[in-house]
Amino acid sequence: MSENLLSVGIDVGTTSTQLVVSRLQVENRASGFAVPELVITNREILYRSPVHFTPLLEGKLVDGEKLRRIVEEEYQKSGISREKVDTGAVIVTGETSRRENARTVLEALSEYAGDFVVTTAGPDLESVLAAKGAGAVAYSRDTGKTVLHMDIGGGTSNLALIRDGEILRTGCLNVGGRLVKFKEKGEITYLSPVLSGISPWKTGEIPGKQQREALAQTLAAALEMAAGRRAVTPLLTQLLTEEAVQSWVPPEEPVVVSFSGGVADCIREDVPPLLFGDLGPELGRAIGESSLCRGDYILGAETIRATVIGAGCHTTQ
């Protein structure tokens, strides 16, 4: 016996905020005398919101009022009312996943999140959601190939090693497109503390094109190390996030590298530098020219929306 549920996923990330509406077909595969075993057997995406910049106040704190207005407008555009929504999840991810932000998001979206999961997605959960939402888990299950999925966002890159459709381990690096933010003419307005000792820049400086490309190549090199495509140096340890539960061990076996996240859209496309006011286009280009994109690699079925789709569907499971 199966039933349909209307699910909403909301991802409030370092760079972007998105909303996805899905229709999930849920089936109970247990016998009549056993504990219910509910499985999502089909998923149909009904609405994808535009990608909004996450509204932030000073100190990376989410602007709750602006966030509420974004979600309210997207509900209206999708043509659904909150009374019709059966389930869903609001996930606070990346550098915005702080306890005070989770509380702000919950308060701002309380009228929309009655039966929702509202949580900060630590790097391990975010890695799982992105790998499932991008289709990397299904790809590994269907092909029998071992996959290393990399979800490369604004502040972090979430890693998931997948064999035969099962996630073996997860990890996270402080590698992302918005570790540096620029004004239109290239003046630095923000420099993440995680780049201390890696980048000599300071706020207010205007690095040249070659300097930006050199930093992007350094960050891409850390991803190569994580994938076992380059000899490990202290750079990898320096960029590992402290919040990850598991220490990352590069795979020894051959893997298909899979990509999602906003930076993934810049791997194959020639995106102008500074278009988004960050290092994303250069980082995407550096990844595309690295060993990560030699041999077997794939872009996720979903890239920038991988985590929000994972939030709306797989947290329901």
Explain the overall architecture.
With 317 residues, the protein is α/β, with parallel strands linked by helices. The chain is 28% helix and 26% strand. A hairpin with a 4-residue loop joins β7 (147-152) and β8 (157-163). α3 (123-133) packs across α9 (306-313) and α5 (209-226) crosses α8. 45% of the residues are buried.
Layout of strands and helices, then pairs:
Layout: E1 2-12, E2 16-28, E3 38-48, E4 52-53, H1 64-78, E5 87-92, H2 99-108, E6 117-120, H3 123-133, H4 136-143, E7 147-152, E8 157-163, E9 166-173, E10 180-182, E11 188-191, H5 209-226, H6 234-239, E12 256-260, H7 265-268, H8 280-288, E13 297-299, H9 306-313
Parallel strand pairs: 1-5, 5-6, 7-12, 12-13
Antiparallel strand pairs: 1-2, 2-3, 2-4, 7-8, 8-9, 10-11
Helix pairs in contact: 1-2, 3-9, 5-8
